[in-house]
Amino acid sequence: MSTIEFKGLVKKYRDVTAVNELWAEAKPGRITGFLGPNGAGKSTALRCLLGLASPTAGLAQIGGKTYAQLAHPLQEVGAVLDSSGFNGSLTARQNLNIICAASGIDKKRIDEVLELVELGHVKRKRTKGFSLGMRQRLSLAVALLGNPQVMILDEPANGLDPVGIAWLRKFLRDLANEGKTILVSSHQLAEMQHTVDDVIIINNGKLVAKGTIAEITKGKSLEEAFLGLVGAA
Ligand SMILES: Nc1ncnc2c1ncn2[C@@H]1O[C@H](COP(=O)(O)OP(=O)(O)OP(=O)(O)O)[C@@H](O)[C@H]1O
Ligand SMILES: [Mg+2]
Question: For ligand 1, what atom is nearest to the CA of residue 36?
Fold first, then answer.
């Protein structure tokens, strides 16, 4: 089973401890929200999962393996970290083509994923003309290319309009219903309340709370619960 696990994860940068002894997990078939204030350590923890940062101590694992131990990483884990990595002079399809060629993914999948993220109508347009929301959707398309069992998404709703946010909510739910493991960071607490099953909250790199949305909110809004847990600014 493709459970995501942080096992005593520590990541230090010189004098900053970005992630401090984090123990938490995200389970298959569920959407897990990863919450915390700016600088809490969310992106750092996700980068450790994706092999983009190496833990100082502890483990960040997917299905019991580190990213480096995965045989076919793009077929096992899809990730949206930031949406700036596209070649602007190439079209959406051409950008995905390069990724397929580099990773051995069947190119038939390109048009499928572009339809899934509703970019089919602009797939022959150069990405330098894409809005932030269109780039976010294209990042999601990349994440889906290998039809992975696990999705790791760092603020995927950034730049999406209300229609896009509602679309993303249903999109993530459909993936979870297929049994996929979804770990998603966000600052949009009202939206997260209606999207996630489980919540992990960190602050200053440390775990503050984890549990089901009902256990965390205890009848309050997620925003109230969050501010109570991490302290109102
Ligand atoms: N490459 C790096 N070098 C040095 N310090 C870093 C590096 N990456 C992150 N940090 C520090 O680690 C801490 C956690 O940063 P991180 O980006 O993980 O937070 P975050 O929870 O994702 O915040 P945000 O909500 O603003 O995206 C911050 O103090 C940040 O300055
Ligand atoms: Mg971040």
Answer: 21
